[in-house]
């Protein structure tokens, strides 16, 4: 635990992680808040609710690199001010918008979402040392698990017990407060030795968005696709067993195991290849489909859960090492977009596998998606090093054959 104490002792890090957790919990809950409002507040179908969720998610995916590029060029506080104002207007206006206009507003709200996650990752990359970075990104991935475990359930409870119209305002208020808090903290996004990055100019995209970075983005997509598909496979398995009411327990067990796994991963003395946690996660997910009831499913998801946060942490660490200082915002935005796309596509693809086979097929499809992404990342990373290493140069000692992210800045 010494590594975690060192990370939290970095000036401003504990405050940033706390405020970012607040903002990310609300952002994670935003899709559910809109869906509950459409179903309960507007008394419309779940298909209509899914439409709003899809447009918000599309905005999030497209907005990641856009906002990241703006941060690189305009500075953090300017972007945070713009997104805070946009979120304030969007969430306050929701109860007054007809459904058709709400669809467009949701896309704009996602496009201009407060970039809490990417800012936290950039700040970690520049304020921690190489030895501290893995532990710091492990804490960041644990933060994501906590936001997922806490936010959506609270939104569902409040929408059912209080008022579906009040919930969007509450979620928006927390997002605005989180964005304002990050702006007040104004974490550094450039290290002292990177101060001249802006003067030199932005590197061309082809100089950094090569096979190595694409490999990591593919793995980011594959990780969240697997996680999204696993959620649906859990529900389908329990529905077949007549035990859907236990779904929340299974998800809580999965999330708790992920937190433990993330903390253990961050305390390791040596880094693992970026593809390895994702590959193991895919392998551990497939057997969960054999569980006959909720008790065995609780046991089955622990193994996969222990690897979820490490997979996310390894991807974030690799992006931070591969991205040059002048484009770090855009690179972390692309990572966010890849993960958002994975979440959006995971459920329908796994749902199709379940419809064509059995609920166990959902776990198999999710696990195979993770394995495919890990294998693709492994092969692309090998290609990246083959292009950048002189033919006569020996392999660096201690590197695995497919260590994605072991390029410049590693």
In short:
With 410 residues, this protein is mainly α. It is 78% helix and 0% strand.
What keyword list fits this structure?
410 residues; globular; mainly alpha
Task: Annotate the secondary structure layout.
Blueprint: H1 2-9, H2 13-41, H3 46-74, H4 76-93, H5 99-111, H6 116-127, H7 130-161, H8 166-185, H9 197-200, H10 205-208, H11 211-240, H12 247-266, H13 275-285, H14 294-322, H15 328-356, H16 359-388
Helix pairs in contact: 1-7, 2-3, 2-6, 2-7, 2-8, 3-4, 3-5, 3-15, 4-5, 4-8, 6-7, 6-15, 7-12, 7-14, 11-13, 11-14, 11-15, 11-16, 12-14, 13-14, 13-16, 15-16
Describe the structure.
It is built from 16 helices and no strands. The chain is an all-alpha fold and 410 residues long. It has helices at 2-9, 13-41, 46-74, 76-93, 99-111, 116-127, 130-161, 166-185, 197-200, 205-208, 211-240, 247-266, 275-285, 294-322, 328-356, 359-388. The longest helix has 32 residues, at 130-161. It has 2 domains: 12-190, MFS general substrate transporter like domains (Growth Hormone, Chain: A); 203-387, MFS general substrate transporter like domains (Growth Hormone, Chain: A, Up-down Bundle), CATH 1.20.1250.20.
């Amino acid at each position: 635990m010494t590594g975690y104490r060192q990370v939290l002792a970095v000036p401003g890090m504990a405050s940033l992680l706390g405020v970012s957790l607040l903002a990310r919990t609300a952002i994670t809950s935003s899709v559910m808040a809109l869906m509950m409002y459409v179903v309960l507040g507007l008394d419309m179908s779940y298909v209509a609710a899914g439409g709003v969720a899809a447009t918000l998610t599309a905005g999030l995916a497209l907005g990641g690199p856009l906002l990241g590029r703006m941060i690189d060029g305009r500075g953090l506080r300017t972007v945070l001010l713009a997104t805070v104002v946009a979120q304030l207007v969007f969430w306050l206006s929701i109860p007054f918008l007809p459904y058709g206009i709400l669809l467009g507003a949701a896309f704009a709200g996602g496009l201009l979402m407060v970039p809490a996650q990417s800012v936290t990752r950039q700040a970690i990359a520049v304020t921690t040392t190489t030895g501290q970075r893995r532990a710091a990104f492990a804490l960041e991935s644990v933060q994501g698990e906590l936001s997922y475990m806490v936010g959506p359930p609270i939104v569902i409870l409040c929408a059912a017990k209080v008022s579906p119209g009040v919930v969007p305002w509450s979620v928006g208020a927390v997002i605005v407060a989180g964005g304002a808090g990050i702006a007040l903290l104004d974490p550094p996004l450039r290290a002292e030795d990177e101060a001249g990055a802006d003067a030199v100019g932005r590197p061309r995209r082809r100089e950094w968005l090569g096979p190595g970075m694409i490999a990591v983005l593919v793995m980011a997509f594959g990780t969240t696709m697997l996680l999204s598909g696993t959620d649906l496979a859990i529900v389908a398995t329990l529905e077949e067993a007549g035990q859907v009411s236990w779904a929340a327990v299974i998800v809580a067990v999965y999330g708790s195991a992920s937190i433990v796994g993330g903390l253990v991963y961050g305390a390791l003395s040596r880094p693992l290849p970026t593809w390895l946690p994702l590959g193991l996660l895919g392998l551990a997910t497939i057997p969960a489909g054999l569980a006959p009831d909720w008790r065995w499913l609780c046991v089955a998801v622990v193994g996969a859960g222990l690897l979820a946060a490490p997979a996310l942490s390894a991807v974030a660490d690799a992006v931070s090492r591969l991205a040059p200082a002048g484009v770090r915002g855009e690179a972390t935005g692309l990572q966010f977009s890849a993960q958002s796309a994975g979440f959006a596509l995971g459920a329908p693809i796994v749902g199709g596998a379940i419809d064509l086979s059995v609920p166990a097929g959902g776990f198999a499809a999710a696990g195979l998606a993770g394995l495919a992404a890990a294998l693709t990342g492994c092969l692309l990373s090998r290609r990246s090093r083959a292009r950048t290493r002189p033919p006569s140069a020996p392999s660096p000692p201690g590197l695995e054959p497919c260590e994605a992210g072991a390029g410049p800045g590693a």
